[in-house]
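Researcher: Re-running this chain for the archive, since the previous output was lost when a drive failed. Same request as before.
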Amino acid sequence: MEKLQMLAMIQAYTGIGIGLMVGLGALGACVGVGIMCSRLLEGAARQPELIPQLQAKVFLLLGLIDRIVHHRPWHRIVLRFCQPAAHGRPVTHRSSREGTS
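Model: Regenerated structure tokens:
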């Protein structure tokens, strides 16, 4: 019964950790995109002739940020479902000197 409780605790804490990582990562990306777009508007107001160059760079960065934000949660999902303890394989830490006595 202790192993079952330990496994439940590991899975629960892993789920909480994954939720925090994905949520805080998305929050950070949203704040960064907001700051970047506000700077685009400031730059466009100061120098309207540079709008095409600024827009191209902002759209490129928006695409990269969006890709990172949508790609990273898949890594966390893989970490969630590929835990050794979740599949009945206990995690053991053996040193190289064990078993050679």
